[in-house]
Amino acid sequence: MAVSCSFLALSFFFFLFTLSPLPVSATDHIVGANRGWNPGINYTLWANNHTIYVGDYISFRYQKNQYNVFLVNQTGYDNCTLDSAVGNWSSGKDFILFNKSMRYYFICGNGQCNNGMKVSVFVHPLPSPPPSSSQHNHSSPNSAAPMVLEYLGHKFLMLSFVFVMFGYVLV
Length: 171
Ligand SMILES: *[C@@H]1O[C@H](CO)[C@@H](O)[C@H](O)[C@H]1NC(C)=O
Ligand SMILES: *[C@@H]1O[C@H](CO)[C@@H](O)[C@H](O)[C@H]1NC(C)=O
Ligand SMILES: *[C@@H]1O[C@H](CO)[C@@H](O)[C@H](O)[C@H]1NC(C)=O
Ligand SMILES: *[C@@H]1O[C@H](CO)[C@@H](O)[C@H](O)[C@H]1NC(C)=O
Ligand SMILES: *[C@@H]1O[C@H](CO)[C@@H](O)[C@H](O)[C@H]1NC(C)=O
Ligand SMILES: *[C@@H]1O[C@H](CO)[C@@H](O)[C@H](O)[C@H]1NC(C)=O
Ligand SMILES: *[C@@H]1O[C@H](CO)[C@@H](O)[C@H](O)[C@H]1NC(C)=O
Known about the structure:
Order of helices and strands: HHEHEEEHEEEEH
Bound molecules: 2-acetamido-2-deoxy-beta-D-glucopyranose
Shape: globular
Distance between the termini: 10 Å
Structural class: alpha/beta
Radius of gyration: 22 Å
Number of domains: 2
Helix content: 25-40%
Largest sheet: 5 strands, mixed
């Protein structure tokens, strides 16, 4: 009994340890930021303020059943038409992963496209050497994050070991 509990606890911490770095590696760009996916917002302004790379996500947040999201081509985007749709989402919290560097066009399919519910994003290829932000020349902050997490992960692992051994002795 005690052994299987220790094993469970250990597995749990291993799980934490191995999974925690994942969410850091890809950025989730929330379309419209805190205003979400709604009519009357200029998404060109939002898109101009975001740099998106292959491997990043964008996510559309909206009232489910009220709006939706269609991936269309430029004609569909310009004219608010769905003939060119190659994908659609309607969960209210739709995550879209970009595998390829190109321009993507999304519109709302329920008539609100003409009220501004359209967004076009250019997805940049992954830069081979991480892009140095305009001011900073040396190591980017992005590359430091996983190392910190890994360090924390090791700490967690050690702590859980102590915890588990202690629990084992007590039982
Ligand atoms: C949104 O903003 C862009 C950039 O300022 C502008 O060119 C465009 O006309 C605006 N769109 C609408 C629908 O107001
Ligand atoms: C652009 O992004 C910055 C940082 O995320 C934010 O503070 C600013 O409000 C944004 N501006 C617009 C127009 O969305
Ligand atoms: C899109 O709209 C423009 C005018 O706004 C029109 O000239 C063009 O034929 C339309 N394209 C399609 C594919 O409907
Ligand atoms: C978009 O798709 C429609 C329908 O498939 C097609 O008629 C149109 O030429 C396409 N537009 C572009 C810019 O590829
Ligand atoms: C939405 O996508 C599904 C598949 O994911 C497809 O079966 C359906 O026809 C699409 N709906 C429209 C309106 O294009
Ligand atoms: C990215 O690739 C996955 C898996 O192949 C696919 O399901 C998804 O639709 C792709 N994303 C885009 C935006 O095409
Ligand atoms: C990076 O630093 C070097 C010298 O350390 C400098 O010559 C160069 O202009 C810097 N590059 C950028 C993009 O700041």
